[in-house]
Design goal:
single chain; 264 residues; alpha/beta; TIM Barrel; nine-stranded parallel β-sheet; 14 helices
């Protein structure tokens, strides 16, 4: 099984260099409605990608083009149509609250592109079994917004308490991802190598490069570092079940320690 790193950017030069370095997908982010208010206290990034950005990146690279649109609303059909006309291969719907959201989303796409759903609300977790019955291609567990929805103090609680693993069990037919990617020797407060081990154990197919990746990659060769991520994932797939269990326990203990510190 291969693992695809995806990068958020509207910079055509960065997109081109990233694809040459081994990035398999570039995400154009149109999600901005209600996002700043929702994430005000979480120090997270809000992007304002446009159709022009999507078209320019599409024309600049030969790689998968992913578009994250706004959450479901009166604007969704227009955004889906625009993303498809602009050349998006995959469209992601964020902040899903119900199976109906996904039903409507799929009807808007009408098999013209692959469909991705972000599971990042309590309601989506509760309705996961129903959503899994639909022909969705990609599922991604958004730890930041899920933590806000659950009123968790730490984004990794959903990993430690088994929520992410349970969702993987439910969405066994979909290409699955969670968390964020950075260099294999970086990551704070959870070392990325521990998260990558869990991504391998849960048979994740792809992951989003974190905002910290752009900082961590400075003074490093991107092609070398991306290859390290892909090679590490491939190597981790060959672990014994006992090794996977030990690595899982190490991750859970690390997350639990971080969560406890956050509660002090």
């Amino acid at each position: 099984m291969t693992f695809e790193p995806w990068l958020f950017t509207t910079d055509t030069n960065l997109a081109r260099n990233s694809v040459e370095a081994g990035i398999k997908g570039v995400v154009i982010d149109w999600e901005w409605m209600n996002k700043e208010a929702r994430q005000r206290e979480a120090d997270l990034e809000c992007n304002y990608g446009t159709l022009k950005d999507l078209v320019e990146v599409k024309n600049a690279i030969e790689a998968k083009i992913i578009c994250r649109i706004n959450s479901m609303g009166p604007h969704t059909l227009l955004e889906v149509d625009s993303a498809i006309k602009g050349g998006a291969d995959v469209i992601f719907l964020p902040m899903v609250n119900s199976r109906k959201h996904v039903d409507d989303f799929l009807s808007f796409i009408d098999d013209r592109a692959e469909a991705g759903v972000l599971i990042e609300t309590v309601q989506a977790v509760d309705d996961a079994n129903e959503i899994a019955k639909l022909p969705v291609d990609y599922i991604y567990v958004g730890l930041n917004d899920l933590a806000l929805s659950r009123k968790s103090k730490n984004i990794f609680e959903a990993v430690a308490d088994g929520t992410v693993e349970n969702l993987r069990t439910i969405f066994k037919e979909q290409k699955f991802g969670f968390g964020g990617i950075t260099l294999v020797d970086k990551g704070f407060p959870i070392p990325f190598d521990l998260l990558l081990k869990e991504m391998s154990r849960l048979s994740c197919a792809y992951g989003f490069l974190r905002r910290s990746f752009k900082k961590d990659i400075k003074n490093r060769d991107m092609k070398t570092e991306i290859q390290k991520i892909v090679d590490s994932f491939r190597s981790l797939n060959r672990r014994s079940q006992d090794e996977k269990n030990k690595d899982r326990q190490a991750l859970f203990e690390t997350v639990s320690n971080v969560v406890q510190l956050d509660k002090v």
